[in-house]
Design brief:
Elements lengths: L1 H12 L3 H4 L11 E3 L2 E4 L4 E3 L3 E3 L7 E5 L4 E4 L7 E16 L10 E14 L7 E14 L2 E2 L11 E3 L4 E10 L2 E2 L4 E3 L4 E11 L6 E2 L4 E4 L8 E2 L3 E2 L16 E3 L3 E4 L4 E3 L3 E3 L4 E5 L4 E4 L6 E3 L4 E10 L3 E3 L2 E10 L6 E3 L2 E10 L12 E4 L6 E10 L8 E4 L2 E11 L6 E3 L6 E6 L47 E4 L5 E4 L6 E8 L10 E9 H5 L4 E5 L5 E5 L3 H8 L2 H6 L6 E6 L6 E8 L6 E8 L8 H4 L33 E4 L6 H7 L4 H7 L14 E5 L4
Parallel strand pairs: 1-4, 2-5, 3-6, 4-7, 5-7, 6-7, 7-8, 8-9, 9-11, 9-12, 10-13, 11-14, 12-15, 14-16, 15-17, 20-23, 21-24, 22-25, 23-26, 24-27, 25-27, 26-28, 27-29, 28-30, 29-31, 30-32, 31-33, 32-34, 33-35, 34-36, 35-37
Antiparallel strand pairs: 18-19, 38-39, 39-40, 40-41, 42-43, 43-44, 44-45, 45-46, 47-48
Length: 698
């Protein structure tokens, strides 16, 4: 009896795989137990269940030669191919998870070797779990893992404790969830050689945890990789509104909207990428039910002066929004697992049908970084879920003027027993209700290219869309006598440049002359008063509003109401013009803040004639050599004669103002403003701009 019982397993092990199960036409069993065998695919395969490689010592070895075909997972088993101690070789094949849930790992093996393999669309777990993996020319894309925790899971490769993985030529694109595309647990080693592309993986590309990543890669991949997949994808093209079409945002950039945007897809913002959207009061709309923006853990998304309709955000990074109106969102505006800061905003008519959801935001502390701050924000007519704002173990701060109006079921909700907190720092005396913080702005368009004119083209001196060298990040125009440049780095910094045309010949670039620089620590060091200034005193930066500037703002009902909101003001002043006018640009809170307003004062003295005398030397910018030439004052406007068709075109020069131009041509400034459709009463004209004084035949 003992000999017979030992002999039965031996006979079972000798049964060839072909006798144990039927091989479909594609060349691979649809499910069941497999042992040492080589399978050569003759067509695409559909897996309806798990293929299990039996465990033994020495291990079974299974080789699948794909011949360029695809194995598609159509079952909901934990794994498609599972052999925790087996040797598995994959060649020239695509493993397509078909968005099914394979929580235990779609591919499990003791030792995995893959050559020219694409791993795509695993739906609810990690694609690869292996003790040792050697992967060459592999492509991971679109794999998803649902947990909101760094520990234990990844979307593409999970390297468990004391495992070893070596990859040569690999692409990881748009893998989402868990700890990131790759998770290295304690003692795991992960080595990358050859080319390596990391794009749109969220929250991390490779989360080292307690493991070790040795990166010997030499650059991004090109051509084809994996099983005929494209290693590189083109950057999204700009839509007519000035924002990219849907896709991966892999390069830091600032996008300024020129029209309303209708989004048709989603955006993945890669690690270490900063995206800034200057809305100019335009709207971004989406009819998607899912999220429109996914931000990686080290990325940044910054929104300014934009209306958002139906837009949802899944944030692991740094999310900031200032002067935004958010409406018509279903399912929750923001799922925040990183840091979110919202200032001067209105959330209105957002809803969710999920009983456990939220209408505006849920902040989550799975990554020990969940934090959200709202300053000067109104929440109106939002409904559904557990409340407007919900926290799951994270912190929500309410600052300044916060208004909750007609929301249901509650304004804020704290998940019981999770350690979340709502810190209420609201101003108890606030009586200002935000109606709509978004203001429509139409930027001045660059002048047309006219080689017969030797005037400056500030925004197109060396080709379409190219700024003057040194001012690539300029986004504020200070009258027609200079510009403020903001770099967008940390800490925030700004520079003032004087722009002059090159008069030696036509089509030569304009020349930017640096005047001064200032950074946020300098501003913070001054409670109120001058921060820094130019040598000649004609350009000054100060903290706080002077009595004269404040009085001008108070004359406007709009500004008078805004002045009641606690905020810090930073004022850039430059002048005087030959008319004795000084232009002031007022920023909110920080050097990267919104423009609060622009005003003009009258006076013959420069705005900081005694700034250098009254300020310590350390407050004067030393970032660049300051100009040492004598002050150059704007000359009176020189009118141009009519052209053969009777029209008169004036090319704006440094120092020109609308009123001075009107005086020179003996017309009214409103006529110039209307003829050229100028915004802000012509305050934002710039050198090189071509203004119609009189139309042809006039």
């Amino acid at each position: 009896m003992k000999r017979f019982r030992l002999f039965l397993p031996l006979l079972f092990l000798l049964v060839p795989p072909a006798l144990a199960q039927t091989i479909p036409a594609c060349g691979l069993p649809a499910s069941g137990a497999i042992r040492t065998a080589t399978y050569t695919l003759t067509a695409d395969c559909v897996q309806t269940g798990r293929l299990t490689i039996a465990t033994r010592i020495p291990p079974f070895t299974v080789t699948i030669n794909g011949g360029g075909h695809t194995i598609r997972m159509d079952g909901d088993e934990l794994s498609i191919i599972s052999g925790p101690r087996a040797i598995l070789n994959l060649n020239n094949v695509t493993i397509n998870g078909n968005f099914k849930s394979h929580a235990g790992g779609a591919i499990r093996a003791g030792t995995l070797t893959a050559n020219n393999v694409s791993f795509t669309n695993n739906g609810g777990g990690t694609m690869i779990l292996a003790n040792q993996a050697t992967l060459t020319n592999v492509y991971f894309a679109g794999n998803r893992n649902r947990p909101l925790s760094l520990g234990g899971t990844a979307s593409a490769i999970q390297a468990n404790a004391n495992t070893s993985h070596t990859l040569t030529n690999a692409v990881f694109r748009n893998n989402f969830g868990g700890g990131g595309a790759v998770l290295l647990q304690t003692g795991a080693t992960f080595t990358t050689n050859g080319c390596l592309t990391l794009s749109g993986n969220i929250p991390y590309d490779i989360y080292e945890g307690s493991g070790t990543w040795t990166d010997n890669s030499t650059g991004a991949c090109s051509g084809t990789i994996g099983n005929g997949s494209q290693a590189a994808i083109a950057a999204p093209a700009l839509m007519a509104c000035g924002f990219p079409a849907a896709g991966n945002l892999d390069v830091s950039a600032t996008y300024t909207l020129t029209a309303d945007c209708a989004l048709t897809g989603a955006y993945d913002i890669s690690e270490d990428v900063s995206i800034r959207i200057i809305g100019n009061g335009r709207s971004i709309r989406s009819s998607r039910t899912g999220y429109s923006f996914f931000t990686a853990a080290t990325s940044r998304l910054q929104l300014e002066n934009v209306a958002l309709e139906g837009i949802r955000f899944y944030n692991w990074g740094i999310f900031s929004a200032e002067r935004v109106k958010v409406s018509a969102t279903n399912g929750g505006v923001l799922l925040n697992l990183g840091e979110a800061r919202v200032t001067n905003a209105l959330f209105e008519d957002n809803a969710t049908a999920s009983a456990g959801g939220r209408s505006v935001m849920l902040t989550w502390n799975s990554y020990q970084s969940g934090f959200a701050s709202f300053t000067d924000v109104a929440f109106r007519n939002n409904s559904g879920g557990l409340g407007v704002l919900a926290t799951f173990g994270a912190t929500i701060e309410l600052n300044g003027c916060i208004n909750f109006e007609n929301n249901s079921p509650v304004d804020t909700y704290v998940y019981p027993g999770r350690g979340g907190v709502v810190t209420d720092n609201r101003d108890p005396n606030c009586d200002t209700t935000i109606i709509n913080p978004v203001t429509l702005v139409t930027p001045n368009q660059p002048p047309s290219d006219d080689s017969s004119d030797d005037s400056e083209d500030l925004y197109n001196p060396q080709g379409a869309g190219q700024p003057v060298p040194g001012q690539e990040n300029c986004n504020i125009k200070l009258g027609a006598i200079g510009i403020i440049c903001r770099s967008g780095g940390q800490p925030p910094a700004a520079e003032v440049w004087r722009i002059r045309p090159n008069r030696e010949g036509a089509n030569l670039p304009a020349v930017g002359t640096f005047v001064l620089a200032v950074d946020q620590p300098q501003v913070q060091a001054v409670a109120e008063g001058f921060v820094t200034c130019s040598d000649d005193g004609r350009v000054a930066v100060r903290a706080g509003l002077s009595a004269e500037i404040r009085h001008i703002f108070e004359l406007s009902p709009k500004y008078a109401a805004q002045l009641k909101i606690p905020r810090r003001y930073i004022v850039f002043s430059k002048g005087p013009t030959f008319e004795g006018k000084t232009h002031h640009v007022v920023l909110e809170n920080t050097l990267e803040g919104q423009v609060f307003g622009i005003v003009t004062t009258i006076g013959d003295e420069p705005p900081a004639s005694d700034c250098v005398k009254r300020q310590p030397a350390e407050h004067v910018s030393q970032a660049r050599a300051l100009p040492t030439s004598a002050p150059v004052y704007a000359q009176p406007v020189q009118p141009k004669p009519p052209q053969p068709d009777g029209s008169i075109i004036h090319v704006v020069q440094p120092g020109d103002t609308i009123s001075a131009i009107a005086v020179a041509y003996r017309t009214h400034q409103l006529e110039i403003i209307m003829a050229n459709q100028l915004e802000h009463m012509g305050r934002w004209i710039y050198p090189g701009q071509r203004l119609i004084i009189r139309e042809a035949g006039g």
